[in-house]
Amino acid sequence: MIFPSSYSIRSKWWPPTPETPSTCLSLRESQLLGNENKDEDENVYEFIIWSCVGENFCCFKAKTKLETFCRNRYNLSGICRRKLCPLANSQYATVLEHRGKCLLYMKTIERIHTPNKMWEKIVLPDKYSDALKMIDEKLQYFPKMTINKAKQRLTRIRQYLMRMRRMKLTVQPKLVRVNKKVERRERKRENRALEVAKIEKSINNELVDRLKSGLYDGFYNFDQEEFEQMLDKIGAKYEEEEEEKEKEKTGGSTFVIDEEAENEMEAWGKSPKIWDMEDLVDDNYDKKMKKLKKRKKGKPKFEIEFEQEVNQQQQREKN
Amino acid sequence: MTTQQLRPIVSVFPIKGKVKTIKQVPLPSVFSAPIRPDVVRFVHTNMAKNNRQAHAVSTTAGEQTSATSWGTGRAVARIPRVKGSGTGRSGQAAFGNMCRGGRMYAPKKVWRKWHRKINTNQKRYAVCSAIAATAVTPLVMSRGHRVNKLPELPLVVSDQLQSLTKTRQAVKFLKFIGAYRDVEKVIRTKKTRVGQGKYRNRRHVLRKGPMVVYARNLGIKKAFRNIPGVETASVYTLNLLKLAPGSQMGRFIIWTESAFKLLEDIYGSWEKPSKFKSGFYLPRPVMVNTDVERIIKSDQVQTVLRNRRPRSRKYGKKIQRADPYEDMSVMVKLNPYYKTKLQKQKELDEKNKKERKEIVDKSRKEYEDWLYFSEEEEEEEEEGSDEDREIEVLSDEN
């Protein structure tokens, strides 16, 4: 294979330059591995630890089907690998975040025997570019992979810090559980309460009372046509009923007990639809009214006209 | 680690006051013994069998029947069946390991080999490895001990510790030195045992906390006895099962000063034999320099090796090349004729296009002409056609 000299090749291993001896690891490889700066003993030390920790049990190792993770706080990228293990590397560095500040943690073999002071903590500057420069400066003699990973980690930390700050300014929706049972129960109770309250009835009563109290005297504007129509209707009915009433009266007078009156008053409130003049024009109408009068002092007398108004009002409410 | 000629120095700490070095002691040679997880595993697995108690199944279990096989011809399996009648048991299968109420397969016997002999030297090797591992911070951490707050590893403390009598004092000391975090871990993770050990007097499971090694017991044993997770041991009788629980090296050990110094005498060194183990020298590593990479890269080795053979392309790394069909410059470098080829092709295309166009235009024109002049032509054609027919008729006749 003939390769023209100006051909742009992505791989940096080919063609072999005279610098790299053919039998050794290439210079670049050794740089990547970072073995240049290490002592003989250091390598041995790391080797021993990795053979105990990496292959056998390590309390920080978390195995899944696809990947082995490292739970160690100081791991650069959370994966259990020889070059990333904070235990098996005598020279190690990480970037960790504490209360919004990014810190560069560095470990060297000289301090391994004093766990108290093993990690040298350096506060990274707030400015991103300055922080990167500081990492470059402090990790000068560390393997290139460590530097790259540290920078990546710094970037990621800064990103999530920014996001946190942004989120604090907005109102976050609070997710609340939906307890089906509770919801169902509450809904049923609401419906029941609604029924029991008998709102329509109470509204009815309230309005009736107000009308009786005379609030609406002279207030209500009725449609002239409708009003006349109603008048005609009511007038005709009333005439009929008056006759009946007279007949009944001659038959015998029945007196109403308080309870009955109350019940009938309720009946008025309950079902306004079934309101007919027949219902209204009772034998004991006067008596009932008297009772009502007694209940509410200072209320004006009732007239036939009043009934019409009430009836119409109810109809309007219906509508 | 493997060939340490220099003997580093270890600080001795007080048991109260300030966490400061009051003295410095040389590191005993044991801590430079080779760390061999394989040896430790082997010895541990065998040692752990030594505290077993014999158990077995009753010799008569499943055999207390006079069952006989019914033989063939009865449309049942030939397994021995219980004799007699009048009970549910009669006719049921017996004796086999597959039978209900039968004897198990290979009933356990008391004369099973419960204990294991391990060569004394191997045992000592393992213990030396385990002790050496207790000084390696990453190994202690990997075992799960919380040692982040310790002033030093190995942790050596003044002999006053041996005279402690009260548990309160012991706890105070542990907190002072930074070892209490490990104890807290033990307390926090105390659980009821999973399984039947629960009701066999092994109800709770605890983690292993720090181990305190002393030279003389002047009360220390009782002081630390009740603290969960903490174990005490005499230097003279260090147990591998405690030094490497679960055959995992790196127990967190707190040494008293005298105990620490005694290690040199108990385990000796490579030059001087042990005073307490007759004829025992510290184990030598198989390889003095285990850094294989370094050895390979060294001049002594490199000069002797032959040249590296060129990598076979077949199984080699795939080289990322620029795609010539995407990048024109790359294509041209590979095949300089390509440019002219393209040009030629272009010219050809244009030429063909032109020709084609001409033809198409021509035919279109003809068609249009035919369309527009068709009315006139029709009349003419009709006449023409009559004439033609006449001529044809004539011809036919002829």
From TrEMBL, chain A:
Q: Which InterPro entries match?
A: Mak16, Ribosomal_eL28/Mak16
Entries under Gene3D superfamilies matching the protein: 3.30.390.110
- Key word Nucleus present in the record? yes
Q: Where in the cell is it found?
A: Nucleus
Nucleus as UniProt keyword: yes
The UniProt keyword set, sorted, is:
Nucleus
Residues covered by the Ribosomal eL28/Mak16 domain? 48-160
Main location per the UniProt record: nucleus
Q: Family per UniProt?
A: Belongs to the MAK16 family.
What PANTHER family does the record tag this protein with? Answer: MAINTENANCE OF KILLER 16 MAK16 PROTEIN-RELATED (PTHR23405), PROTEIN MAK16 HOMOLOG (PTHR23405:SF4)
The name of this protein is Protein MAK16 homolog
Automatic annotation (TrEMBL), chain B:
Q: Give the matching Gene3D superfamilies.
A: 3.40.1370.10
Q: Which keywords, in A-to-Z order, does the entry hold?
A: Coiled coil, Ribonucleoprotein, Ribosomal protein
What GO annotations for molecular function exist for this entry? structural constituent of ribosome
**Which region ranges are annotated with the description Disordered?**
374-398
- PROSITE patterns documented for this protein: RIBOSOMAL_L1E
* One cellular-component annotation, GO: ribonucleoprotein complex
Biological process (GO) annotations?
Answer: translation
The record ties this protein, via InterPro entries, to: Ribos_uL4_C_dom, Ribosomal_uL4, Ribosomal_uL4_dom_sf, Ribosomal_uL4_euk/arc_CS, Ribosomal_uL4_euk/arch
Domain named Large ribosomal subunit protein uL4 C-terminal is located at 278-354
From the record, what ranges are coiled-coil?
338-365
Per its UniProt record, what Pfam families does this chain match? Ribos_L4_asso_C, Ribosomal_L4
The entry's family comment says: Belongs to the universal ribosomal protein uL4 family.
What name does the UniProt record give this protein? 60S ribosomal protein L4
